[in-house]
Amino acid sequence: MPITLEDIQKDFESNPFLSHIGFQIIYFEEGNVKVKLTIEEYLLNTNGTLHGGVYATMLDFILGMVLRSVTKTRCVTTNLTIHYLASMSEGELYAEAKVLQQGYKLAFAEGEIKDMKGNVITKGIGTFKLIREE
């Protein structure tokens, strides 16, 4: 049975790890996914800024989600390259991603995380192995 967009959205919304961090899906359709995160104190590092791992997780999340929305199959990250351009301590972050290329076994996506004013805070590109049911 093929995976539907509704199945994919339910998978992500029911993931306890992603819910704990606080990611909110604000837009979801095939090839177009947007996610929001309100920065909370428990997500800050010892410098008082959002921990780099949260940015990485947000990118991994949105890249995988946009790929699944297009491929309708599960995927796992094989490589994730992140460019940290600025830091934040408060406010909201918005992430979006797009598929760059898709083959039968591998797919590539890129994404950005922006602040409330639209400034790019973090950029990333990922390679994913597609897990197709044979």
Automatic annotation (TrEMBL):
Pfam families, per database record: 4HBT
Which protein are we looking at? PaaI family thioesterase
Q: Which domain of life is it from?
A: Bacteria
Q: Which family does it belong to?
A: Belongs to the thioesterase PaaI family.
Residues in Thioesterase domain copies: 47-120
The alphabetical list of record keywords is: Hydrolase
Name the NCBIfam families for this protein: unchar_dom_1
GO MF annotation terms:
fatty acyl-CoA hydrolase activity
Q: What class of enzyme is it?
A: hydrolase
Q: According to the UniProt entry, what is the EC number of this protein?
A: 3.1.2.-
* Xref: SUPFAM superfamilies: Thioesterase/thiol ester dehydrase-isomerase
